[in-house]
Amino acid sequence: MKINIAKSAGFCFGVKHALNIAFKSVDSGANIDMLGDIVHNEDVVKQISQAGIKKISRLRKGASKTLLIRAHGAPAKTHQKAKSLGYKIIDSTCPMVKEIHMIAKKAEKKGCTIIIVGDQKHDEVRGIIGQLKKNPIVIDRLENIPLTKIKRIKKAAIVVQSTRNMEKTLAIVETLKQYIANLEFHNTICNPTRIKQQEMKIMPLKNDLVIVVGSKTSANTKRLYELSKSLNKKSYWIQSKNDINPSWFKGVKSVGITSGASTPDETTKAVVAEIKKL
Q1: For 225-263, b where at least 16 C-beta lie within 10 A, e where not — what string?
Q2: Which of 68, 164, 198, 238 lies 20 to 30 Å (CA to CA) from residue 79?
Q3: How far apart are CA 232 and CA 236, in angstroms?
Q4: Strands (DSSP E) along the chain, which ranges?
């Protein structure tokens, strides 16, 4: 049985950037708090906790403390509140997510209604919403476009959650163009996501079976799995080697393996080693 590993498997630039900042902060001896998880992966979260970064659910008095802003970013109010409570802030927001913040704020200043193509409850989308003065419209899929609201808009700008599916996003944009005369589209799907998705259009067709490795909380991993499953029914989404079912591999001659942008190489390597044992 041949095992083919995607070139783009594993950490993206944004995750590496955030982790570098996090571990350097620990090395400096700072007393670090973080609202939520640095990225959506249980193994990485465990590493961060073991390094001494404390996960908190809300901000309290921050004198002599540092607040680490995670890779997905945070609303502007979080920054303001942390500063007022005495926290020093270290920002590990992905630079590509910061760019989305900048684009959205600039478009709002020009008088555009902001439309975000993304998941309303995702941390990255909450961070984008939290940069704006007015409530944006968030659209997660084509069927959920609020046409009544859309038809009243004369001028709008679209930004996209960085890990969205390209084809599904473009379908939403094409529909919005039919109703909004003055519409700016900023395709803010990040390059690592595009590369991963491009590979996933080929890998399921060239392999009998595909394994996608990553946390069930990871949006970009979910997109890779959905894309693979649409092309090859023998696609499986696992979090670790413990989720592998030997019966999947009966009669399989080639296996394609990829992993999400927040999945450590060690996790993927352990999956490969487990499959080799079969």
Answers
A1: bebbbeebebbbbbbbbeebeeebbeeeeebbbbbbbbb
A2: 164
A3: 10
A4: 2-5, 32-35, 54-56, 66-69, 88-91, 113-117, 137-139, 155-160, 182-185, 209-213, 235-238, 254-259
Taking the CA atoms of the chain, what radius of gyration do you get in angstroms? 20
Domain end point (choices 145, 166, 189): 189
As given in the structure block, the two tokens for residue 137 are 């419209």
CB 168 within 8 A of CB 141: yes
Q: Which two tokens stand for residue 14?
A: 């944004």
The set of residues, in sequence order, having a beta carbon less than 8 Å from that of 223 and lying 6+ positions away, is: 163, 164, 165, 193, 197
Instruction: Give the residue numbers annotated as catalytic, written as ranges.
Output: 124
Prediction pTM value: 0.93
133 is in which domain, residue-wise?
96-189
CA 205 to chain centre: 25
pLDDT in tens, 48-68: 999 999 999 999 998 999 999
Q: pLDDT band for position 278 (50/70/90)?
A: confident
CATH code of the domain containing 70: 3.40.50.11270
